[in-house]
Design a protein that fits this description.
98 residues; mainly alpha; 67% helix
């Protein structure tokens, strides 16, 4: 995930990178990390990275939507922890779990 974030936020290449070159750069960074940490980082190909990202992105989008809804429901005496708990409740009510 960190390789994806790094590549997607790279100002040199921008956010409008072509899919194949984008995932090639993500894979290259991942392999560099794997070479530096062979015991902690397992082998993956581009397709497995894309699948992992797709699953994570789906859940992140659900969490962001739950947070927005919770902030919209915020009442006067709710602290940030209460809002976050409300977001958890909304997220889990949609069938997702942490």
């Amino acid at each position: 995930m960190s390789a994806w974030i790094f590549v997607s936020e790279d100002k040199k290449f921008g956010k409008n990178q072509k899919g194949d070159s984008f995932w090639a750069r993500v894979h290259k960074l991942y392999e560099q990390s794997r070479n530096d940490n062979p015991k902690e980082v397992g082998e993956r190909n581009r397709d497995s990275m894309k699948g992992c990202f797709k699953r994570l992105n789906k859940n992140v989008n659900k969490w962001v939507a739950a947070c927005k809804e919770a902030h919209g429901r915020k009442r006067s005496r709710m602290c940030q922890q209460d809002v976050e708990q409300e977001a958890h409740t909304i997220y889990e009510a949609g069938g997702s779990k942490f």
